[in-house]
Amino acid sequence: MPLNKSVENLSEDEARGELRRLAKVLTNSNVAYHSEDKPNIDDATYDALKRRNQKIELRFPQLKLPKSATDQIGAQPKEGFQKIQHTIKMLSLGNAFNQEDVNDFVIRIKKFLSIPVAHPLSMVAEPKIDGLSLAVRYEKGKLVHAVTRGDGEIGEDVTANAKSIDDIPITIFDAPDLLEVRGEVYMGHSEFTALNDFQLNSKQKLFSNPRNAAAGSLRQLDARITRDRPLKFYAYAWGSISSPLGRTQTESVNQLKKFGFSVNPLFRRFETTDGLVEHYKYVEKIRPDLGYDIDGMVYKVDDLALQERLGFRSTAPRWAIAHKFPAEMAWTQLIDIDIQVGRTGALSPVARLKPVTVGGVVVSNATLHNEDYIRGVDSKGHKIRDGKDIRIGDYVQVYRAGDVIPKVSDVDLSRRPKDSIPFDFLKKLEAEGIEGHRADGDAVWRYSGKQPSPYLAIETLKHFVSRQAFDIEGLGTKQIEQFFDRGWITIPLDIFTLKNKYGSGQALQLKNIEGWGTKSASNLFDSIDQKREIPLNRFIFALGIRHVGEGSAKLLAAQFLTWNNFTRAMVEAVPESEPWEALLNIDGIGDVMAKSVIEPFQDVAQLNEINALVDQLVVLPFEQINKANSPIAGQTIVFTGTLEKMTRAEAKARAERLGAKVSGSVSPKTNILIAGSGAGSKIKKASEFGVRIMDEEDWISLIEET
DNA sequence: TATCCTCGAGTTCC
DNA sequence: CTCGAGGATA
After folding, report:
1. Which of A381, A397, A417, A437 can pair with A393 through a Cys bridge, CB separation 3.0 to 4.6 Å?
2. pLDDT of the residue at A290
3. Residues of A annotated as part of the active site
């Protein structure tokens, strides 16, 4: 059958044969290109064949093969990329929304470092590009891989695609043996417009903004598509590195430039906060003419030694901040207010809006937080939005906080319908048939209806399989809802007994459900089996105990180390008992949390359920993160008195980075007491317990050993 | 007791 | 991303 016979003239039979033939050729070519890295046909031919395939499918949709090459591209990029763990986490940044926030940020840093507030501090500023972060790793000057930010810990391997970006060199000269360059992949305005013109002409989906276009292009499974997309890259930071690039941020960025990376031309250094803000205003003014999207400025402490001292908080460095430009606003009408039930029973109001475009995205829902937020006055009498309440029918101003979460920021009273009435939270709950209760001093209403409630049960299950908990592939929100509706999975235990009940034997019931076949069913059972081993901290988190998130679950796991220890202690932990004290001794756990943690273990029904669940699992002991071989790793340290060389906050951060636990009070479990000047009762207590006591000088020399 | 900091929980759209 | 609340600290 001739390839050049035009699609319009093909008979149905010819088309069927041609589709089969094309499928074979395209699949072979994909394998050759991706898996063997040796293309067997040239790009132009490949593209021509693919377009032809598409055209035939368009004309004879009924003939479309189940595994069409047109679908494969773009349909599975999620599975298509290998996951790679970042050696050094890719963190996000704290935000400043006005000059005051920036001042606070600089003052906080100076206090942390005990630099007088009036003293100058070198800071650098550069635009914050609205694109995607990428980490590019070089070994002996050769690009070995490029990984997207992902969740900060694990990203996707997009090496083949990154190599096609001109701003990213494949080879760099005189580089350190190991160099991981971090920067932003983005698309310029003119390139974006041109791409959308092309998409329009070829009847393909338009991109809503340059950022989405850049994301879509970088995450193409087919690197040839990425190559044709005009992506750019600005380098602004580094991750793992075998030798420093400089002593300051400025020197390091200059060095990156010498290696051949593009760096932002608006990078500047300033000695004062005013300088930073002036630069911010200048960039804001020229923003429309830059030719690419930015959403603010990033400020960093210039001196790398100071950056090191400042270190990191749980999600962001202390030494950097993003100063955001004001968000785009839009006005629209509030059609209704609905109530949503969360996992913990929190009843949250959600605004249903007349769809409106804000920052290139159509928004039709927005969070309203709680009853007070709607009323316009919080429980302490503080005004929100100048005290304007939000009513159904109102015209409201909407923006996307952090360019993501839609929020209602203002109400146009002049357009308020004459007959509108204030929103009555309780009445709404009654109308919906939801029993709720708002505790004294709390802002949230909570579900107070009969347990077990289907609302809570399903949210509990979603939490259980979520990424930070069991992370079971192929068992997401949709599947949980499907199984819940059938009554197959109503509690977490059911997930692990699913195969026995419905997946094997003569029944094989799962494959009879819509959307499930034998193959997908067995895939699901495999991925469930894979997760039967789970680290203690993840398991505690998965239980969904109120007040216990990822962080606190880790604290608990670190304290009790094994599931047996933990569960025994929780069963025995009545107030004033020894395990109760052990709980409260954990830095970060107080009585509210302690009470919450022991509750499920002291209720027979819940405890039985947990035990039955554990029977299906292997809960792995908590693994101490190897904090190198620091002399204080694993030790519990208490600071007291006034330290001269560093602030308490810095001392604490330093100790924690070296693997020590910093506690507030001396107990028999304390290993070291560091006593600054003016220390009192704690020294006495420490000597009673035989705790090692050292002064600030000893402490400094101890940490400088490492 | 008041204030600061950090974490948990809930949120949207693609 | 934001808000509220819990925990630590002064």
Report:
1. A417
2. 93
3. 128
- Number of domains chain A is built from: 6
Alpha carbons A337 and A351: distance in angstroms, whole number: 5
What range does the domain containing A59 cover? 7-72
Token reading at A517: 């076949």
pLDDT band at A36 (very low <50, low <70, confident <90, very high): very low
Same domain, A686 and A637: yes
Whole-structure pTM over 0.90, yes or no? no
- Is the pLDDT at A242 greater than 50? The verdict is yes
Nucleotide nearest to A379 (CA to C1'): C4
**Near strand B (CB < 7 A), which residues?**
A 108, 208, 212, 313-315, 340, 342-346, 348, 350, 361-367, 404-406, 459, 546-553, 588
Nucleotides of B under 7 A from a protein CB: 5-14
pLDDT digit string, tens, across residues A147-170:
988 777 778 889 988 998 999 999
What pLDDT digit, counting tens, does each position of A105-149 carry? 888 888 788 788 788 899 999 999 988 889 999 999 999 999 988
- Residue A555: closest CA among A534, A581, A533, A584: A584
Which alpha helices (DSSP H) does A324-393 contain, by range?
371-375
Protein residue minimizing CA–C1' distance to B6: A314
Are residues A576 and A668 both part of a single domain? no
Calculate the dihedral angle through the C-alpha atoms of A201, A202, A206, A209, rounding to the nearest 10 degrees.
Answer: -70
Q: Give A160-216 pLDDT, tens digit per residue.
A: 889 989 999 999 999 999 999 999 999 999 999 988 888 888 888 888 788 888 888
Q: Are residues A262 and A131 in the same domain?
A: yes
Q: From the CA of A628, how many Å to the C1' of B4? A: 31
Footprint of strand C on the protein (CB under 7 A): A 92-93, 95, 97, 369-370, 372-373, 378, 401-405, 407, 441-444, 547, 586-594, 648, 652, 662, 664
Q: Which nucleotide is nearest to A111 (CA to C1')?
A: B4
Q: Does any domain span residue A79?
A: no
3-class SS at A480?
A: helix
- Measuring from the CA of residue A339 to each C1', which nucleotide is nearest? B10
CA–CA distance, A17 with A684 (Å, rounded to integer): 90
Do you find a cis peptide bond into A452, omega within 30 degrees of 0? Answer: yes
Nucleotide nearest to A403 (CA to C1'): C1
pLDDT at A446 over 90: no
